[in-house]
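Researcher: For the record, we're logging two predictions in this thread. I'll number them. Prediction 1 follows.
Model: Prediction 1, sequence and structure:
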Amino acid sequence: MPKLTVEGYGTVDVPAGKRLVLAIQEDAKVDILHACGGNARCTTCRIEFIEGEPTTHTAAEVERLAARSLTGVRLACQIACDHDMTVRAISRLEGSGRPDPGSRPQDAITPEPIWV
């Protein structure tokens, strides 16, 4: 079972293969944003890796980060927990002015991942 450490929140065990955005929200209990419902459209689920950054990306993540000219961050909705990771949650509901974090992302990565 992979271990997920969220800076400032501690370490939790996460079921292998669980989407990182869901692991941060449901297991680590961090109020991460996911305004588009985890579909790689909005970038509100962006995180920074401290350790354990995956070497692969989905094509949707690469396209969205490039479109927004974002570097040094990843989209938690496009990553599966398959090894130990340490992350910093950047976009949180607290202080965002939003009424909620967004609709719950599906269990599987969406859109269908094309790995690059």
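Researcher: Logged. Prediction 2.
Model: Prediction 2, sequence and structure:
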Amino acid sequence: MTFPENLRYTKDHEWISFDGSVATIGITDFAQSELGDIVYVDLEDVGSEFDQDEVFGSVEAVKTVSDLFMPIKGEVIEHNEELEDNPQLINESPYDKGWMIKVKVENPSDVESLLTSSAYQEMVGQ
């Protein structure tokens, strides 16, 4: 299981990376392994705006459906369209090909409430 140092994490198992005012968001390697085989991803539309901790979609695995929570306040500017036909990319490559959305960051200070890699690892017992 991997926990890239350059990412920030939520207690709800989302990861986030930043490139200027754009953030990329997905679920962690730990989350995908706990969910099992992901069969469907439902994401809100491009242009949707969310406050920190609001639900922005869900992932459906063989045995369960899990909500996705926005790590920061922002507007969805892009979806990973490959997930429509290949949701298993989340299982295969959660930090690369399995990213979910890109968001225009509204409040950069939101990052201060997110977990570092080591804090997230400690939270999940790794």
